[in-house]
Amino acid sequence: MNIADKLYAIEQIRLLKARYFRFVDTKQWDSLRAIFTDDATVFFAEAFDAPRPIDEGMTFIKDVLQTPVSIHSGFMPEIEIVDANHAKAIWAMTDQIYWLGSEGNPFGISQMTGAGHYHETYRRENDVWKIETLKLTRLRRLTIPLPSAN
Q1: SnoaL-like domain location, by residue (predicted)?
Q2: Which residues are CB-contacts of 76 (< 8 A; sequence separation ≥ 6)?
């Protein structure tokens, strides 16, 4: 690949990740699923003991994030184009999740703030970049419990 093609691929991957965050926070589940390859895997270290197939990961994401307001940010990407159809990246991330009460809240908390990294691989299919593997690792997670009912 020449430098222009590599830079174009990097920009396409940046846009892909921006869509990931927007689709998660706006709960556009079908659009979120569409940016992953059919054989994609996801690994959320706090929830899973090993990578899971994307459809199992989507069920987890929907179950956890359907009710709360979430704000995800990704920045400072380290994107490496491996070849014309494969790339990998590490993204620094933060997230803030706010539950309004106990309904739909599997954790019994009112807020969670976290920071860490997404480790991802990408594959280009039919000239479109998609997420092939996603692994989220956290450096810090702060939770605030639900207020006690008095």
Answers
A1: 7-134
A2: 91, 92
